[in-house]
Amino acid sequence: MGRIADLAVELAQEKFIAASGPGGQNVNKVATAVQLRVDVFALGMPPDAFNRLKEIAGSKFTKDGEIVLTAREYRTQEQNREAARVRLLAMLDEALTPPATRKKSRVNRLGKVKRLKAKKVRSTVKAARGKVSRSDW
Predict the structure, then answer these.
(1) CA atoms within 13 A on the CB side of 123
(2) What is the rounded distance in angstroms from the CA atom of residue 78 to the CA atom of residue 10?
(3) What's residue 116's pLDDT?
(4) In CATH, what is the architecture of 2-96?
């Protein structure tokens, strides 16, 4: 992931905007929220990783091929900048990690016999729940 992550941080365009939330009067005076934009096409990701990133990003992925992240949790620009970068790197890390391939399980002969025996017992229990006739009284 190293090369793509470094490139993403390098290519990221930051724009500071007025934030809502905690900060009191400070929030009205200082643009503390950060909007991070990264052109995904410029990263040169493999197609499968690109598709995973698109899925992960969801509505944060624009039709122009950019990811737009907004961080406004903190009262300072620096903390918000760091939070946005961390989220971007987490997204990239998740997209670049291929999903684990499922290994087919194989049941041995004893396991198969045990399963069939349990099914037979369960079948007998359910069959015994049938309607009660007068002859059974």
Answers:
(1) 6
(2) 16
(3) 96
(4) 2-Layer Sandwich (3.30)
